[in-house]
Design brief:
Helix content: 40-55%
Strand content: 5-15%
Oligomer: single chain
Number of strands: 12
Distance between the termini: 19 Å
Strand order of the largest sheet: 2-8-7-6-5-3-4
Number of helices: 14
Shape: globular
Number of domains: 2
Structural class: alpha/beta
CATH topology of the largest domain: Aspartate Aminotransferase, domain 2
CATH architecture of the largest domain: 3-Layer(aba) Sandwich
């Protein structure tokens, strides 16, 4: 059976160039980057080349990039470093669990947390963020693009507002990188989180942008890797893959890839609206990244639809992969004002660079048919 993968916001397939970069290191790149002899120096060069590629994608200095194990560690490191006990933190209600669950830990450590809710389209109002600021606010953390809806947040406005008050600003750009231009200078952020496996790189490697001169408390202690900011021997194959993925992500912003994804997404939404009643696009009136569509299919639990689609070779999701299996409705959709029932009836279609027109054609045929069949016979799932 032919399969088509539409869960690229959960993870992406590595690109051939990424795979090749990793294989080269696995075959002959076993040097420790901290060693002074030739093989160690060669390994160090691989790390620094990748660091330069990530820095170019973000528009920052290479020495402002810290390699981590992924987006979760980057988010945790940013919040735990910037929010000492007794300080105040402002976050949005639609952040990834890596931020929201870090807030729970910080609360137990004496940090006060204010949560700003979005409007009905899932977008924050910078003025509402401004209202939440206090004299003791140490950090504001607002994601660049939401992982469930794809809605792009006004981070540049928020960054200006926050800096005017002398407060640090962190943004989780995991779902934005490679889909829209992400410039730390334009955003005005002090910290930014990135993950390789969302941009067709390997899993288990990410990065934290740390503005030069900003104080930082390492999450991990031990050796002096990453200029003393992240202890542990570098994951050389994954870092090499991340560098290749970052290069491809930058190229993809200019080679028409994003335009193609947007056209496919819009075609899917139009076709579904024409074929099926009771379909709502969550965040559809707000700016979105090109690859993401979040749809509520009235009257059909998303779990039933996902099972039916999987049987026919179509893989997509009901939202964030980190909440798979949870009985609770999406915190993002309920924060936008959806009822629990409508949130549980939502599916997320997220396209990637390795999708094809045939994948999209299959989805256009199978998805409406599956919805109509489940409405006629709910027990079919």
């Amino acid at each position: 059976m032919r399969t088509a993968y539409f869960d690229n916001n959960a993870t992406t397939r590595v690109l051939p160039s990424v795979q090749a970069a990793m294989i080269r290191v696995l075959e002959d790149g076993y040097g420790n980057p901290s060693a002074l002899y030739q093989r160690g120096r060669q390994a160090r060069q691989i790390v620094e080349d990748a660091r330069g590629a990530v820095a170019a994608l973000l528009g920052c200095r290479p020495d402002e990039v810290i390699f981590t194990s992924g987006g979760t560690e980057s988010d945790n490191a940013a919040l735990f470093s910037a929010c000492p006990a007794g300080s105040h933190l402002v976050v949005s209600a639609i952040e990834h669990d890596a931020v929201l669950n870090a807030c729970l830990v910080l609360k137990r450590q004496g940090v006060q947390v204010s949560v700003v809710r979005p409007d009905g389209n899932g977008r924050l109002d910078p003025e509402e963020v401004g209202k939440a600021l206090r004299p003791d606010t140490a950090l504001v953390s607002v994601m660049t693009a939401n992982n469930e809806t794809g809605v792009i947040q006004p981070v540049e406005e928020i960054g200006r507002l926050v800096h005017d008050r002398g407060i640090a600003f962190h943004t989780d750009a995991v779902q934005a990188a490679g889909k829209i231009p992400v410039s730390v200078r334009s955003i005005g952020c002090d910290l930014l989180s990135l993950s390789a496996h969302k941009i067709h790189g390997p899993q288990g490697i990410g990065a934290l942008y740390l503005r030069k001169g900003l104080a930082f408390r390492p999450l991990l202690v031990g050796g002096h890797q990453e200029r003393g900011r992240r202890a542990g021997t570098e994951n050389l194959p994954a870092i090499a893959g991340f560098g290749a993925a970052a290069l491809a992500a930058g190229q993809g912003l200019e080679d028409g890839s994003i335009t193609r994804l947007a056209a496919w997404r819009d075609a899917i939404e139009r076709h579904l609206a024409q074929q099926v009643d009771g379909v709502a696009i969550n965040g559809g009136s707000a700016p979105r990244v090109a690859n993401t569509s979040n749809l509520t299919i009235k009257g059909i639990p998303s779990t039933a639809l996902l099972v039916a689609l999987d049987r026919q070779g179509i893989a997509l999701s009901a939202g964030s992969a980190c909440r798979a299996g949870s009985r609770r409705p999406s915190h993002v959709l309920t924060a936008m004002g959806l009822t629990a029932a409508d949130a549980r009836a939502a599916i997320r279609i997220s396209l990637g660079k390795l999708n094809s027109q045939q994948d999209v054609d299959d989805l256009l045929e199978i998805l409406p048919r599956s919805i109509l069949e489940l409405r006629r016979n709910p027990s079919a799932a």
